[in-house]
């Protein structure tokens, strides 16, 4: 038996065969040969991409419908436009390689779209960038790494990006280990949301273990390769224990948490897609406290249309049958790169760059389209929009102006929507916490994003395991910012919740109740456990108060 230690970031113990997957890395950049040669390369790549788009259109039409598949026909048409080919060809004649030329063409045409008045045409900017990226990918010989499994097993990868994690098939992936990674990365968060056991930062793993029987302990961060009989027994006991624990948690189903002062504390769920929403509803979530819409965008591998977004948001609302569904607007950038938005790439400090609302305000057509889709879905149930990474009040004011435009356009088109759809914000930068009183006057609710609030307050990259020591135990500075936020929310009469991973940490529950948090949003599988903890904290607090009285 071999034992490999790492950092357990999600779940329980699982057993299965190990499949080692490594990313295909590309190093050598292509060097300009001759204009004639580069033009030929460009023509060949275009032919390949056209075939790919035709296939994608066919597959999407079969799986999701003709309307959803239309986007690929639009992309093909864009490539066939005279401007697209001519501009690229001219740049090649000036001495650019085919990939440089096609990316520059994409950028030039995107700027032309963005300068147009119609929001529909502005939204085409992302499409033309997406097309040129796809062609550049083919030119670079870049292939995507294949994580599909023929039978259920455990994946061992050098690393997994959030975009790859979100595409994992939960029925086939029993668990995963990665050579790198950290506790609060979006990959780890996704593993918890999807309830997939995961261990990260295990160091290098030898290819000779591929196909071997393994036990993965997601709690303690251990991978046992060819486990002996004793570990086999530990595994069997742990499965039994998990079952009993789940059964015991069932007592909290249907219970509601009300403090001695009569305040209701709602236990909601974080979701990255419709599957998680369904899981949340099945686990008695009192709402969706955070739907990370960027994962929806990642699944599409391009910018989903308004229609596509609308149908997903509407579906989420319908699964939650009358319970509030908070959809966070696109939080791309940093570790969640969408490569069809060029300004999210090549930043020296992406976590401090054009991320989340900053990116959406830069490409306002994206936000406009998303808000239109959300307003349309608001006609079908209680939905709310939540804006990530607000730093200064002006950003929120700009978002609200775009929301007004989205509503105005729906009014003109006689499309139904709820004009009172709440718009809340994430408090996840120290600046937002310090501005909380002002911001509370401008929005309908706060949700504290502890993952980023910790990262930005402590200047400790959430992706970097070397600086985790700064975050444990949680420094007073972060607690004070949370307290200020809760106090500002209370003063303005707006609810304040927690949707960062700290909500899932039982040792923090009493603190959250103490500062006045009224909603805790956690991975769907953790709802009943956290509700049990909240009920226990409320009981203890009442007991304490009774003792003080007598
Ligand atoms: C957070 O920062 O706490 C949060 C919930 O957002 P994300 O983890 O998606 O950045
Ligand atoms: Mg965040």
Describe the structure in your own words.
The protein has 550 residues and is an alpha/beta fold. It has three domains: 2-23 and 145-248, Glucose Oxidase, domain 1 (3-Layer(bba) Sandwich), CATH 3.50.30.10; 35-140, PtsI, HPr-binding domain (Enzyme I, Chain A, domain 2, Orthogonal Bundle); 255-549, Phosphoenolpyruvate-binding domains (TIM Barrel), CATH 3.20.20.60. Helices cover 49% and strands 14% of the residues. The chain has an eight-stranded mixed sheet. Strand 13 (383-387), helix 14 (393-412) and strand 14 form a beta-alpha-beta unit. Phosphoenolpyruvate (PEP) binds at residues 189, 290, 292, 331, 428, 449-452, 499-500.
For the record, what CATH class of the largest domain applies? Alpha Beta
Average pLDDT, rounded to a whole number, is 92
Biggest β-sheet: strands ordered side by side in the sheet: 1-8-7-3-4-5-6-2
- Count the beta strands: 17
Query: Which strand-content bin applies to the residues?
Result: 5-15%
Low-confidence runs of at least 5 consecutive residues: none
Bound small molecules, which ones? phosphoenolpyruvate, magnesium ion
Q: Mind describing the biggest β-sheet?
A: 8 strands, mixed
Which CATH architecture of the largest domain is right? Alpha-Beta Barrel
Structural class: alpha/beta
Provide the number of structural domains.
Answer: 3
What's the Cα radius of gyration?
A: 25 Å
Total of DSSP H or I helical runs spanning 4+ residues = 20
Distance between the termini: 60 Å
Shape: globular
What share of the residues lie within helices? 40-55%
In CATH, what is the homologous superfamily of the largest domain? Phosphoenolpyruvate-binding domains
Q: What oligomeric state is this?
A: single chain
